[in-house]
Amino acid sequence: MSDTSVNNKRIAKNTLLLYMRTLFIMLVTLYTSRVVLNTLGVTDYGVYNVVGGVVAMFGFINGSMSSATQRYITFALGKGDMKRLQTVFSTSLQIHFLIAALIVVLGETVGLWFMYTQMQIPADRMDAAFWVLQCSIVSTVVMIVSVPYNADIIAHEKMSVFAYISILEAVLKFAIVYALVISPFDKLIFYAFLILAVQLLIRFCYNHYCNRHFEESKYRHVWDKSFFKEMTSFAGWSMFGNLAGVLFGQGLNMLLNVFFGPVVNAARAVAVQVQSAIQQFIGNFQMALNPQITKTYAKGEMEDMHKLMFRSARFSFYLLFFLSLPVLFETNFILTVWLKTVPDNTVVFLRIMICTSLIYTLSNPLMVANQATGKVRKYQAICGSILLMILPVSYVCLKLGCPAYSVFLVHFAVESITQLVRMVLLRPLIGIRIVDYIKNIYTRVLFVVVLSVIAPFIIYDNMDDTVARFFVVCLICMLSVGTVAYTIGLSKNERTFVRSKVVAFTNKIFHK
């Protein structure tokens, strides 16, 4: 069997496992979050989330280092250089211990100050809030130190480990709900400690697996000053890109609050929830494919790398479009059934945000490819600066009297421009031609979008707004996207691969 066939089989298996993991976690989370809310009460539940958010504010620091660790471990693995891989892992652990120490200092100083002086917390719940903060700090430290181990698992493409351990985590959180209901202790403090205990156990599982299966995951005291500097520099420029995303995301939320009040913030929050739920499934596919892009670059197999990028972008888009098209048509019906009372602007917000997500999905292989090269300074500086323009341009639009949804149109437009800039910046780094990217991705994607919309639009436009229309439109959307994406959106080799997997899966079912 060829390397390409083996890689395709691995990607398909990993994607399926990650999909199952996400679906199970979503179901458990939907149930447990409702029970926890009812058990703790609105006030305590709000205290838990807002106090935990104080520590989460520092998360972008770790997020940048996480992407750097992922890149260097995957790159060394692709090169097959075990000595380098051991150095990468041990150095990344050292850096993450430093980040953890920084988070502890910030949490115990800035975090405590912010909680006691700036937050609106009932006086009789301050002691409970203090313990929630302490548990949140320890949980964050545990997760930070575990990043190199998780990166090692992803680099080795052992996605089944994530699936199985995540299911264990979901089961434990389900058990927490039962323990919380029957607990005689202060429920908020008890809940915080239980969540911490689960985090510690799950981290032990990941670390134990790595120590047993990956030789490089055993820490060795090494000090490579130049490599330490290289990794932190990479992370620093990645941090600029991450910070740009945080700033324009939270900035838009504050702008909407200033110009329109909290009702519009509620509409945005609902739209973000739906958008995030849809995107989780696409993130699984990309997580399964991203290591292959980095490894092919490390081996110098540029043509294979380009093919993987094209496949990642197209498949990610088709998967997201498959899930999104029914939501785009039946947005109002879905939100009304879910929420009963839908905040004004939610429908238009969600539709524009989904369209922006579709554009952003095509960016993922470009961002992974840039990280694979290690030359991130120019890329992050330019793309981050362009994305930061979303905030001032949105402010001008609102100042001129534009409606609330205009800020999301600005986001869509700037994201589209940034997509073109990404291609231009990557061209000299990986030898990819812009015309090839447009031909292999945008042309196919555009045909799929236009042809897929026709049938469901006719049904939507000619049926009354009923439950029957919702189910018919959803069915036609899925059939339309699936058929058009398969016949027009995929190459001949990709159709053969998909067909072989469907046949193999069918045979497995009927032979049982």
Automatic annotation (TrEMBL):
<protein>
    <submittedName>
        <fullName>Lipopolysaccharide biosynthesis protein</fullName>
    </submittedName>
</protein>
<keyword id="KW-1133">Transmembrane helix</keyword>
<feature type="transmembrane region" description="Helical">
    <location>
        <begin position="381"/>
        <end position="401"/>
    </location>
</feature>
<dbReference type="InterPro" id="IPR050833">
    <property type="entry name" value="Poly_Biosynth_Transport"/>
</dbReference>
<keyword id="KW-0812">Transmembrane</keyword>
<feature type="transmembrane region" description="Helical">
    <location>
        <begin position="16"/>
        <end position="33"/>
    </location>
</feature>
<keyword id="KW-1003">Cell membrane</keyword>
<feature type="transmembrane region" description="Helical">
    <location>
        <begin position="407"/>
        <end position="429"/>
    </location>
</feature>
<feature type="transmembrane region" description="Helical">
    <location>
        <begin position="128"/>
        <end position="149"/>
    </location>
</feature>
<keyword id="KW-0472">Membrane</keyword>
<feature type="transmembrane region" description="Helical">
    <location>
        <begin position="441"/>
        <end position="460"/>
    </location>
</feature>
<feature type="transmembrane region" description="Helical">
    <location>
        <begin position="161"/>
        <end position="182"/>
    </location>
</feature>
<feature type="transmembrane region" description="Helical">
    <location>
        <begin position="466"/>
        <end position="489"/>
    </location>
</feature>
<feature type="transmembrane region" description="Helical">
    <location>
        <begin position="315"/>
        <end position="335"/>
    </location>
</feature>
<feature type="transmembrane region" description="Helical">
    <location>
        <begin position="347"/>
        <end position="369"/>
    </location>
</feature>
<feature type="transmembrane region" description="Helical">
    <location>
        <begin position="45"/>
        <end position="63"/>
    </location>
</feature>
<feature type="transmembrane region" description="Helical">
    <location>
        <begin position="188"/>
        <end position="206"/>
    </location>
</feature>
<dbReference type="GO" id="GO:0005886">
    <property type="term" value="C:plasma membrane"/>
</dbReference>
<feature type="transmembrane region" description="Helical">
    <location>
        <begin position="93"/>
        <end position="116"/>
    </location>
</feature>
